[in-house]
Amino acid sequence: MKNTLILLVAAVPLFAASDFDFKQLDRLAANAKESTNITLEGPVLKMASGFIGSKKDKDSAAVKSLIDGLKGVYIRSFEFDEKGKYTEADLDPLRAYLDAQHWTKIVDVKQSKEASTVYVLTLPDSKPGGIAIISAEPREVTVVLIEGAIDINDIGKLGGRMGIPDVALLDQMKKKEKPAKDQ
Amino acid sequence: MSIEDQLRSALRREPAPPDFAASVLAGTRRIASPFWRRPVTLALAASLLLAALIPPAISEHRRRQRAEEAEAQLVTALTIAETQLERVSATIQRNTRRIP
Hints:
Helix content of chain A: 40-55%
Number of domains of chain A: 1
Order of helices and strands of chain A: HHEHHEHEEEEHH
Largest interface: A-B, 38 and 28 residues
Shape of chain A: globular
Largest sheet of chain B: none
Number of strands of chain B: 0
Number of helices of chain A: 7
Number of domains of chain B: 1
Shape of chain B: rod-shaped
Strand content of chain A: 25-35%
Helix content of chain B: over 70%
Radius of gyration of chain B: 43 Å
Strand content of chain B: under 5%
Oligomer: heterodimer
């Protein structure tokens, strides 16, 4: 009985909405030129899902099936007018949270002054538990935290549906347009 | 006075007072229209109906507005997530190409 209780208590952080205190990141907005702050969880997320589900087209049904398993969607994006308005230390609490919650760092890329890290959470039953992306540039920082049954491939599938642009397709189009413009 | 004269006097024709017809008609109207057809009752019923129908309609309108806002935020969030993943993927591809 005691062991079961301990197991249940240990499992709570894996299934609950985010415990991360986003106020630690939100204070960066004070120095930012532009900021995006999105928090969708619980009833609001269900409301969005229900609204998408009420549309009777094929895309909406596909998107709804993907987002039904989400527990929380958190976006923080800040653009600064000059360098040095934030430091790596500002992102440390989030990195510490992800490490403590057993998120796995699957990508860590650095190119010149740009660094991006992608984390995934895998639940004990090997099902996806979420995706986190931290992207840092000298004058821009973006944090994406999506908790719930979604993996990287699912996000790719959303492109081109429901007004979500197909970024890969747009890039291909830009590459095709470039030589034509150069001529 | 003989009995005939008494009867004649009692049964003689007398003109009706000038407001007689109007008062009879008013009395008839009062009797004919039941309480639920009176203007005050109808106005009260209409007010109650509106009071019952308007708040749920406003509430539904607000709920729909909130749902639309939530959907727009979700689409923005997923767009940012997709863009970020695509940027990471592009960086990995660029870095991989540099490796001889």
